[in-house]
Specification:
about 170 residues, alpha+beta, Arc Repressor Mutant, subunit A, four-stranded mixed sheet, 8 helices, about 10% strand
Length: about 170
Amino acid sequence: MLVFSECRGLSMRERDLANHILNHFGMSNNDQPDLAWIAQIQGINVQYVPWIEGDASGWFRENDGHPIIEISSNKSRTHQRFTLAHELGHYFMNHGDRARDTYQQFRLREPEEISANRFAAEILMPKSKVEEFLSQGLSQAQMAERFGVSYESMGYRLDNLGYEYDREYVF
């Protein structure tokens, strides 16, 4: 079994942790890693539900020691994918149990939310793969399609990595 527990809760940069997990599960070369499989191997019960407390996108919690991730079924597939990656970040970084991605949490810029977003961005759009795609001349839309993320998420990732990039056209 490929359960990945040796790094759970250790102080590790989000990028390092995400890349370590991708390597551990043999997904470092995948454009779209199978996050549901990672969750399943970890023993996490992933549930798609129509409503989550506080109208959140997702929630990581433990019930009698059994990890559960709830994801809003009312969001787009790409939003759900980012939410699953985000909640896996909370799981691997031991952030605890509560509803996530509420308006108030974004407004307050809670450190755990920022950290989980960094983890999600790296596991879904690894810096090395973004750089590879840029060198191939892929547009923002093409990269978003390859990674299975929204156009907006891809734009945030490019901006956060410091790329001044014409996202509409490849010259």
